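User: Thanks for the earlier help. One more: Magnesium-dependent phosphatase 1. Can you show the sequence and predicted structure together?

Assistant: Of course, both are below.
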Amino acid sequence: TEWPEGAKKLIQLFDWEKYFTYKEIYPGRKTTHFERMHKASEINYSDMLFFDDEQRNILDLKRVGVTSILVPDGVNKQIIEEALQNFKT
């Protein structure tokens, strides 16, 4: 995100901190974010799920094996449910 402080405030506002062990919130390439999370967590890229509104980020992360979902209009419950259903298979 280009507005890390805003993203952090939203995470606090919605009380989502308890759901995330690893956070990478700063401007930059998503491959860098995921590389750091991969190293810290030892979670395989193939076990990660990513939503983004920028095609370039989707393509970059698909190349390393992250299941990546393009969401040009944002995320909603239906998109998450479909992504999780496809992710399981």
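User: Great, one quick takeaway?

Assistant: The chain has a mean pLDDT of 93.
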